[in-house]
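Q: Could you write out the predicted structure for this multi-component system? I'm mainly interested in how the pieces pack against one another.
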Amino acid sequence: MTEQLVFELSKPGRRCLELPACDVPKAELSSLLPPGMLRDEIKGMPEVSEIDVVRHFTRLSKLNHGVDNGFYPLGSCTMKYNPKVNEDAARLPGFARIHPYQPEELAQGALELMYKTQEFLAEIGGMDGISLQPAAGAHGEYTGMIIIRAYHESKGEQRTKVIVPDSAHGTNPATAALCGYQVVQVKSDARGGVDVEALRQAMSGDVAALMLTNPNTLGLFDENITEIADLVHGGGGLLYYDGANANAIMGIARPGDMGFDVVHFNLHKTFSTPHGGGGPGSGPVGVKGFLEPFLPKPVVGFKEGKYFLDYDRPQSIGKVRSFYGNFGVVVKAYAYMIALGGAGLKAVSEHAVLNANYLMHKLKKDYHLPYGRICKHEFVITSRNQKGKGVHTLDIAKRLLDFGYHPPTIYFPLIVEEAMMIEPTETESRETLDEFIATMERIAREVEQNPELVWEAPHNTPVGRPDEAAAARKPVLSYLFCE
Amino acid sequence: MRYHPHTEADRKEMLAAMGMKSMQDLFADIPEKVRLARELNIPGPLSEQELVKHLGELSGKNANLADYVSFLGGGIYDHYVPSVINHLLLRPEFFTAYTPYQPEISQGTLTAIFEYQTLICRLTGMEVANASMYDGASALAEAVLMAGEAVKRKEILLSAAVHPECREVVKTYARGQGLAVAEVPFTGGITDLDALKAKLSGNTAAVVVQNPNFFGCIEPVLELGEAAHGQGALYITAVDPISLGILKAPGEYGADIVVGDGQALGNPTSYGGPHLGFMAAAAKLVRRMPGRIVGQAVDTRGQRAFVLTLQAREQHIRREKATSNICSNQALNALAATIYLCLLGKKGIRELAELCLQKAHYLAGKLAEVPGYRLAFSAPFFKEFVLKTPVTPALINQALLKDKILGGLDLGTFYPELAGHQMFAVTERRTRAEMDNLVAKLKDDIAAKSKDNVVAKPKDDVVAKPGGGRG
């Protein structure tokens, strides 16, 4: 069952929101606006009542699956529970209803919160300076990489290449290219880490940086990390840490201590802020001391008992976003961090890793596990054992929908054929994990006994599989009005 | 612990099931020398009750727009946010979901984005819109990159009357792609058309203007666009979505790419974020567009369904050849914008725009009558306008704070040549009484003070320095 569009619910003359009457003398529009700039009524805008709007969007919400609906083991996305109290916090008038240009004197609470968040993230990352300006993880990557570019330029060096492993998130090479770099891919070794020999050969004086996720997208910690760092630093390059997987390492190991020079965090992953159906996120960037002058402006400073926006940064890369970033998201992450404290954050990572290993251990009975060592917060299995029956990863993912689960990340990382990347997070109980394991076992049995059931899945979702190829061939990207 | 449900027995049994003895065994693969040998120095834990108290105190240190009467604008506006929006955003099925990768269980988000795209197309008069971007500034920067690729030229002409923060973001982004950005000066509050024509050439990839521009002035949008097209350049406009209730749509005056900040559409000011940027374009540019796009499809049961589409542009498929590295949108903020536009409806968007227009002109008229104040520009404006002030705006704003009024933006912090100029924003939230009160305060209090204090520099600690001050 699907929902009508709001345009189809519309009826001429119907309306809801009442605006206050105009309490000033009205001037003739022709005296206020230049000729030809006055617009006619906008065709196609909805005409609906308030209850139409409320019911329409309530019905739409019911067609969605969120963390509050059930298990959401989407690898590399850290779909943990989003604490409700943080939603209340971000909506306090003193946070939600403040203007970015109001005097700093009248925004001391906001600035203090930002300053402390900078400090906490620096502590977790083993970094010296933080910018909260990037609005998302990919935006943080972008910011971090132009900081690296600015650093090399400040030394009079024009380095042209960035190395990414073949297991990297797609954003890594896309970001490097957006910053004007040529992307060099290095392969992974048999244990799933960076192939150190291949890296050695790829290194040269042209290399600006290596972008790495650790633990990587296979959920594996790269044991050679210090050797890798030495290799890159030895060639004059810098190390960029993609913090998408930081939920595995809080309080356990810090990117700064591993040799990374720049990190980004995803507040919407590691620090529990909700994903919102695709945003808003927040992607703060941390740097070692020698890169601090290049951070975007402003950063929040503290001097003589007052917090302030520090724009006096002559070597800054400039700005990547207006104002100070996604402040409302930062409020939620700050609340999360102090609710847990240092020990609590470490416990988060420990339990995220416990849950992932437990699931991996149980699922490897039925599903092929390409890398059989301890994983961190996530792991990758495949549908190789099911291939003989003609069942693919996509089919298993779709069958999971019938049981009320969001499927794992599928077909990623690209280096594993028919991959299913599973990240349970720490907020799931053993009972939830056991139920999921039982469901995966059941699907494995179905593949053996009744593969059609799996091929044709999902069976009880609001819509079946949409024809995405046809949609892309003849794109319909907005409602076609009859006018 | 607070947000993870494991009991001691759970831990033991789970570890035992894997043949492990302690939690440390899970981290045997992390080399000793990179392990953190101490606890993280982060305060806490706090119980929920303690947390709420602390955050209440922290937020209480900020002046908020429920308590203050604000005339601040400059990209973030104090529009009324209807109650319905927050109630619907708090449906956990919306806010606890991820990007709609699995369309079968994401039709709520996907349908709402399809409606959002449709509404943005209608507002802007353009053919296609994406699913939203981080903010207006990064949307503008991405539009500039898109234009550079589309016309294969390397020079961008950017009006100096575009929001200063947006111009900074454009310059940051342009550098990576080797695009040269040149600014076109303004005269009388609007982009200098002759200066633009003089700078335009066969190397120009795009002309970028904002309408109404940073000063609130309405640009000669038709002539600017004709000049751009005359040299084969694309025409990019950044617009205030509320203004489109009454001002001609960019699609009607030849814009090729239209962007803007969507905060005004049902999102709280929130110290500048999160909100959304929107982007719309001519259909021929759709495959160069950055970001998520939702399209209509048909499912296996013959029903209409919505999916993420044209993904061949995107990073997870194309990696370094992607049109952008963006892999999200501001879905929840775009949902707020969608609900807001539905609540306003066809009549409401027009009425709202007219309220802003009328009230802004009322205040401008009254302020211009205050001795020593005059309108800085003669160009027509929408909901913001610039005044030349008899004393430094910082002093005026400081005096107004006593009455819980946030005065207009001090333009000297953005444009040194506009020191002594102040920009006032007026939304539908401002009542005649509030505006009359402002005028009275300026007349009596500040005018009196200014007689013997015209050039006096305020003490450091009383300077109401706007947060956006440049350095």
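A: Regarding packing and overall arrangement: The CA atoms of residues 237 and 405 of chain A lie 43 Å apart.
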